[in-house]
Structures are given as C-alpha cells and as structure tokens.
Specification:
The protein has about 400 residues and is an alpha/beta fold. It is about 25% helix and about 30% strand. The strands form seven sheets. The chain has a five-stranded parallel β-sheet with strand order 3-2-1-7-19. It has a five-stranded parallel β-sheet with strand order 9-16-10-11-12. A five-stranded antiparallel β-sheet has the order 22-23-26-25-24.
C-alpha cells in the first residue's frame, strides 16, 4: 500500500499512527508546506513568551518519521490532486502516486479586505511557527502592538508578546472577548484578568481604514501602532478537493473520516464534521479532534475499522495563569456558580448535558466532557451532585466501575 498524507500537524500525525496500528509495511509520504518538524501550534505563544523552546514545542520526537518509515517532504506544495490517476502533483511537477490519500491541510488566517492594509509595513498573522518567528524579530520594548481579533488566537498572541513591547491593544468587532466560547459573565471575568496584565481592549469597534501606522475606526477614533497582528479568524484549506469531493467552507467527511471521493480521506481544521452536542455539521478547529479524526482516517485507510462520531467543540486554554475549559453548546437550562476566582455554567436540556464553561477550577472538567460525548441521560445519574461537585460517586455503580475500568 502507498499512503500519502498532505499536512504535518495533529491530524497528519494521528493518521501516521493510525496506519501503523494496522499496517507496519506500507510506504507513507507526508507532504508539508512548512519547513519544520511537526510541532504543537498552541505552544507558539509560549515560545514568544520564553516559557518554552523550539525543542519542547515538537509534537513528536525527532526520530518520529524514521521510526514510522515515513518519507517527509518539507517546504513542499501540492498543486493538484488527480483522483483518476490516484496521484498528487507537487508544485515542482513531481507526481506522487497513492492508494489512499489523507488531506489534512488545516486552516489559514482570514485577512479582511481593510482599506489601506497594504500601507502597513509590519503586519503579521499568528497561525504558525513561521508567523511567531517573523513577529518576534519585529518586537522591542518601545513598540506598540495592535491586535485585531479578541478570540483565542489574538489573546494568546497578546499574552506571548506582552513583556516584550511597550503596549498591546486588542480590538474586536464583538462586544466581548472570546465571543465564540464565552458568555457575557465569563468574558467579563477574563477581560478584567487580562487587563490586570496591562493589555487594553477596544470592543464593539470596527476599522474603517489603515494609513501606515494609524488605524482609523468607524467612530472617528484613531489608534496609533508600530506592529499590526491580524487574528480575525480562520478559513479552512479545502481548495485541493474543490470539484473532487464535497466542500462548503470545509471538506465534508463521514464518521470514518472519508470524503465523498473514493480513496480520499480528510481530517482536522480543513473539514466539517458532525457535532453531537448541537446536531450540526461544522468546522471544529481543535487539536484533540484533529488528532482523533486523523487517527480514525489512518486506521480505515489501512483496512481497519474505526469511527470518530463523538466530536464536540472544546477549548482548554489559559491566560496569565487563569484557566478556561469550555465544551459543547450553550442551549437549554443553566446551572450557575460564581465566586472569586471561579466561574461555572452548566447547560442542559432534553435529559442531556449540552455544554459547559469553567473558569478557574477546571479539575473535574473531564466528567462533564464525558457526559456530553456519551450523551448520558441525566436521569441515570445524580445530576445535582454532578453540577455542584463532579465526581464518580454521582454515577450508578455499574457506570462507575465501567469508567474506572476505562481509566
């Protein structure tokens, strides 16, 4: 068997490890546009902050590819996929044949068409190691940084560079930070915490135009800056399969990570998959989902049997020492707790746990995540106890033994 994997991040690595669970002999070619060994993208902000180094951000050890008998093609672009010939075409016109193909091309930064953006000299995105390396070269303690985007990427960038510049301002069109994963109460707590670390916010604000190092807002205000970081959002890299498989702002895959094209699989941020917490197909650009989806693809590509049908939106992140875990969707009734240093929202309905937000004490978040993934009927557990004090004692004896055995 000849396996080709386009992409070298979590989904691609999961695919290699999935294949090798079944097939130890087949040839694997891993193609990546980046010049680097696989690394953990969420750690690039810690690299800037000086809390880690280039070796520690590696997603797998240096000998991963040789140990798994992989051919790694770095700094290599795929220009086309030819499904009839079962081959991928590289930008240098080399053609690599495959029996099974995985597309795990990830996502890219969305760049709004701001008027005057081309006049900004020092501008960056914050999606990759190369982005972080380029940004770091421009930082110094006298410079002001404007980050457009108050989501996870923009705020992790702000945390990573704060101690290396004079000031950081985060601007977002939304009225609250992290609007895609936090409610009003949670966002307010995190904003106050981040502001205590000398980061300023301009929320509910939009940019009309740029003129060199000036951002003119729609309300007439002007923000002066030296460095611009664009962290508005991401777009899935699904173009290689346009006209080959179903794509609509993401590659459609089934529970086996198969696309609608024979022999072609897809995994990670470039895909749309089924969110069991909401019942909708959506992009879920999350490292754990990417790895599990890639591993599922690899097992099936090698002739095994595996399904990945319990995907949920989930985020585990921290800012300046305060941790957040969120999962699922925020519909239904709400159980609430709030106290100094802690915030909890549990969302439930139709005898199911739909989602949660935890800030501060996140120790037992795995219990809530399991309830969502397994769609556990709430009338089979002590739900009141689970809300207040998540622990295995809230489950029936057989269920407790099952979970303990699973661990």
């Amino acid at each position: 068997m000849k396996y080709v994997i386009i992409g070298n991040s979590a989904a691609g690595i999961g695919c290699v490890e999935g294949i090798r669970q079944i097939d130890r002999e087949g040839g694997i070619a891993v193609i990546t546009a980046e010049a680097h060994h696989t690394y953990s993208r969420p750690l690039i902000s810690y690299l800037l902050k000086g809390k880690t180094d280039r070796e520690k951000i590696l997603y797998r050890r240096e000998n991963f590819y040789s140990d798994n008998n992989c051919r790694l093609l770095k700094s290599t672009l795929v220009s086309a996929i030819e499904p009839e010939e079962k081959q991928v075409v590289l930008s240098n016109e080399e053609k690599i044949p495959y029996d099974k193909l995985l597309v795990s091309t990830g996502s890219r930064a969305f760049i709004p068409a701001f008027e005057g953006l081309s006049s900004v000299k020092d501008k960056f995105t914050f999606m990759s190691l190369d982005d972080a390396i380029g940004l770091e070269k421009s930082l110094d303690k006298y410079k002001r940084v404007l980050i457009v985007g108050g989501g996870l990427i923009g705020l992790k960038c702000a945390e990573g560079i704060r101690d290396k510049v004079a000031h950081v301002t985060v601007l977002d069109l939304a009225e609250r930070i992290m609007s895609s994963i936090l409610d009003d109460g949670g966002a307010e707590i995190m904003q106050r915490h981040i502001e205590c670390n000398d980061i300023s916010f301009r929320l509910g604000a939009s940019i009309k135009r740029f003129e060199s190092n000036s951002a003119f807002l729609e309300n007439g205000d002007v923000i002066e800056f030296d460095i611009l970081v664009l962290a508005v959002g991401v777009s899935p890299n699904d173009e290689l399969l346009n006209g080959i498989a179903d794509t609509d702002r993401g590659i459609a895959v089934n529970e086996k990570s198969q696309t609608t094209a024979p022999g072609i699989y897809a995994a990670g941020d470039c895909t749309k998959s089924f969110d069991i917490s909401s019942g909708h197909n959506k992009n879920m650009a999350l490292l754990p989902n990417a790895y599990m989806q890639g591993e599922c693809a690899g097992i099936n590509m090698a002739g095994g049997e595996k399904t990945f049908d319990k995907a949920i939106p989930m985020n585990a992140i921290g800012f300046f020492g305060k941790h957040i875990i969120t999962a699922g969707n925020y519909s239904g009734d709400v159980y609430s707790e709030e106290h100094p240093g802690g915030y909890k929202r549990i969302f439930y309905g139709n005898n199911r746990l739909n989602g949660y937000i935890l800030i501060g004490n996140i120790e037992k978040a795995g219990i809530y995540t399991s309830l969502i993934r397994e769609q556990t009927p709430l009338d089979t557990i002590d739900f009141e106890l689970i809300c207040k004090q998540p622990r295995l004692m809230a489950f029936a004896k057989d269920e407790r033994m099952s979970k303990i055995g699973g661990v």
